[in-house]
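TASK: fixed-backbone design
INPUT:
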């Protein structure tokens, strides 16, 4: 019996108000980001660090597409907020396994929203004295922020809407979607 790939007709797709970026567009953008990293990190000691859990799909896809020797690691952070409210506090839930001193590190994150999570993680990672430290965020939300940091590698820039898919969750669901979409407001208002 042949197993069928169910990713493009997941039942969760019915909960989206609209699809912002299809699976093909997402993958094409990851290919672009991987090509930029390939140019910038040739001959360097690259470590890609995914931020759990939203950064997992991008970390995996970048790692497969980059075509350069590199190491991967993950760092866990929990941002305390209501289901969708502003971040109150960021707690590190999983530390790095690899030594990164003197390495060229790229933090891989699903989305740059208020920036609170990344500011905390970046400061923590800096204490390990990598040679360089850059950030790759697949989605960059346009909004007014208290703190703005340089995000060198950005996939897509979007308005301030709540999106899910490709690692992004609502209540831990929808991370599996291969596309990125705007969640139907009736899902979180019911
Ligand atoms: P920040 O600290 O406000 O930048 O928030 C970062 C985290 O908030 C992300 O890693 C996501 O887990 C979550 N987040 C922010 N905006 C969205 C969204 O539109 N959809 C899903 N999760 C989001
Ligand atoms: Mg989340």
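OUTPUT:
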């Amino acid at each position: 019996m042949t197993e069928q790939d169910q990713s493009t007709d997941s039942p969760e797709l019915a909960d989206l108000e609209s699809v912002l970026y299809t699976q093909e567009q997402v993958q094409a953008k990851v290919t672009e980001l991987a090509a930029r990293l390939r140019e910038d990190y040739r001959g360097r000691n690259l470590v890609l660090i995914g931020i759990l859990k939203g950064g997992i799909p991008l970390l995996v896809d970048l790692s497969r597409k980059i075509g350069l020797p590199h190491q991967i690691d993950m760092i866990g952070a929990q941002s305390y907020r209501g289901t969708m409210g502003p971040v109150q506090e960021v707690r590190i839930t999983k530390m790095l396994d690899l030594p990164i001193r003197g390495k060229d590190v790229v933090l891989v994150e699903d989305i740059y929203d208020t920036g609170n999570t990344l500011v905390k993680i970046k400061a923590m990672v800096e204490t390990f004295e990598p040679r360089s430290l850059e950030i790759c965020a697949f989605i960059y939300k346009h909004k007014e922020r208290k703190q703005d940091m340089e995000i060198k590698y950005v996939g897509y820039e979007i308005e301030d809407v709540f999106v899910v898919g490709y690692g992004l969750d609502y209540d831990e669901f929808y991370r599996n979607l291969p596309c990125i979409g705007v969640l139907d407001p009736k899902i979180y208002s019911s």
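COMMENT: The first helix runs from residue 23 to 41.
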